[in-house]
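Attaching the record inline, Q. Sequence:
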Amino acid sequence: MSGRTRARACPERTCVGCRQRSARDGLLRVALIEDRCVPDLRGTLPGRGAYVHPTVACLELALRRRAFPRAFRTQGSLDTGELRQAVGQAAPHEIPHGKAVR
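Structure, as predicted:
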């Protein structure tokens, strides 16, 4: 051993809304169950995942860009009701310009 310590690598993912790279811990994983986009809070649901910042601004941008069907490689529209509810609960003080009030 060389005596050097290695810092654990923190995986990065890209938000499908704003296209910014962030640590995986700062993003919400979204999974596809049938035709529904559901939040995967534990990160254990099977299949492809898409990542989005848990803010209303990034979610709305992802929906406007139709990023979820593209990320999941599906055709048509997807139900995002559960996802909207989860993001709305995660960021109750969100204002339209994407800056959270603390």
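The chain has three helices and five strands. Helices lie at 56-64, 67-72, 81-90.

More tomorrow.
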